[in-house]
């Protein structure tokens, strides 16, 4: 599926705080924890617990979220399909980063081992 400019714009304007509760619900429904979710977010972004809370409280957009992030150097190892899009084929850098996060959350919810999710195995 091809990512459109409108889709990229929508991703940039979407707030992390609006999606975060859905991430929590998704992983907890599958028996994973909020702490594991935070571990995944921290691995990808470099944000600690207090920074994650601050970004939620400040209602930051994904654009700002990833501008402030220190993206993990192994993020490029995140591949596969998420929401109908093949991550490695997404051209827009911001949309690709958002989909990286979506893919990690999806892997967590599907019960993958943390070392595989964090690309350390």
Report on the structure:
This protein has 121 residues and is mainly α. It has a single domain (5-117), classed as uncharacterized protein sp1917 domain (Helicase, Ruva Protein, domain 3), CATH 1.10.8. It is 60% helix and 3% strand. It is built from 7 helices and 2 strands, in the order αααααββαα. It has a two-stranded antiparallel ribbon with strand order 1-2. The longest helix has 17 residues, at 93-109. The N and C termini lie far apart (30 Å). The model has no long low-confidence stretch (mean pLDDT 94). It comes from Autumnicola psychrophila. InterPro entries: SP1917_dom_sf, UCP033199.
Quote the distance from N terminus to C terminus: 30 Å
What is the fold named in CATH at topology level? Helicase, Ruva Protein, domain 3
Strand content: under 5%
- Corresponding CATH architecture: Orthogonal Bundle
Mean of residue pLDDT?
94
> Which CATH first-tier class would you pick?
Mainly Alpha
Task: Count helical runs.
Answer: 7
Principal-axis shape: globular
Evaluate the radius of gyration.
Answer: 13 Å
Q: Which stretches are poorly predicted, pLDDT < 50 over at least 5 residues?
A: none
- The SSE string, one letter per element, is HHHHHEEHH
**Order of strands in the sheet with the most strands?**
1-2
């Amino acid at each position: 599926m091809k990512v459109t400019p409108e889709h990229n714009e929508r991703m940039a304007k979407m707030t992390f705080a609006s999606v975060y509760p859905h991430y929590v619900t998704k992983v907890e429904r599958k028996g994973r924890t909020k702490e594991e979710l935070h571990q995944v977010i921290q691995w990808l972004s470099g944000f600690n617990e207090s920074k994650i809370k601050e970004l939620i409280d400040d209602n930051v957009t994904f654009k700002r979220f990833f501008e402030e992030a220190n993206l993990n150097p192994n993020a490029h190892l995140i591949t596969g399909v998420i929401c109908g899009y093949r991550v490695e084929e997404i051209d827009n850098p911001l949309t690709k980063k958002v989909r990286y996060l979506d893919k990690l959350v999806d892997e967590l919810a599907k019960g993958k081992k943390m070392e595989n999710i964090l690309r350390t195995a």
